[in-house]
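Researcher: Next sequence.
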Amino acid sequence: MSLAETAPRRNDGLRFDLQGDEREILDGADLFARKELYPLASRMDAEEWWPDGIFEKIGQAGYFGVTASPEEGGAGADLMTSGLVLQGFARWNHALALSWVAHENLCLNNILRNANEAQRRKYIPGLCSGRSIGALGLTEPGAGSDALGSMRTTARRDGDHYVLNGTKIYITNGPVADVLLVYAKTAPELGAKGISAFIVEKDFPGFKVAQKLVKMGFRGSQTAELVFEDCRVPAENLVGRENGGVAIVMSGLDLERAMIAPLCLGIAERALELSIEYAKTREQFGRPIAEFQMIQAKIADMYVWVETMRTFTYRCLAAVNDLEVGGGGRGTVHALTAASVMYAAETMARVLSEAVQIHGGSGYIWEAEINRLYRSSKLLEIGAGTTEVRKIIIAGELLK
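Model: Next structure:
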């Protein structure tokens, strides 16, 4: 029997590089981001500025609704494709990339996977076009890593409406969102088992943006504290069944973790590129610093780290590509997504630290692009479950 006959066939669980049209997808997203998003990055960082109309431009280019059907205004593609778009965007404007994934994955894709037909018809086309900006409302002032057990936002049925009361914080896209997927306790006595999901529009009475939060990194990607004071949400905007929100949360968190890894990868790729360019042009002692072995060693390490990030990221995206609704939050995929984002975030931080070291004093200046990237690193070790929570998830699944 020949080697060709006995060799394992490549499948979605075994991925080492891009296949088929995937390279073209990544290159296309890279080109669009370099042309349309990169020129906005400096001002977004300096002023915490949000460029009005940019989401519609992204939508017109076909980069929203990646996983939605063409009939709904989407591309009819898969989560792997979505991750490649995010990777390309992150190289050139990581703040808009973060806002993109909060809209595309946390809001749009969650609604797509869990909402009923009427809800999808009402909200998905606007989110796909970029005319509506989406956000996810989960984290609360007293409920971060314990987002479910410590949730205090409540939803009480009142006739044809639910009345929401509570506060959400650190909500990406919060100040500019038109549509939010919000979690609240409909049966507080049941603890985490009494959580439900709702689609909330910004104009619903009782909803307001309490404050816009100013951040160390990812500046320009708008973040807010949101308040619900007797916010009346039509009962028809309940997503799934009452008290069935945990399955939506857990499945969504696994997909979110899988999608944060390409965000880390894109940033790290750009940092490596900037470091190579700087090392070739910066001269000390009469020659480019790229000729010094210590600089070469740093660049070699950074290259290895980026390539291992790439392999792990693509493998994880492939593994969750066809994850069934409600299929997350347990088992191998739960550990894999936590491991992928943990490794990607920690490794990205190492890449960025060495990148600033190569840039020396110029890398320490706030306006420098490499400084902008460096300030982004910590968030990705905190968001979507801290590094410590990720380790608990991994160990918990392995020790079952």
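Model: Confidence is low (pLDDT under 50) at residues 1-14. The radius of gyration is 21 Å.
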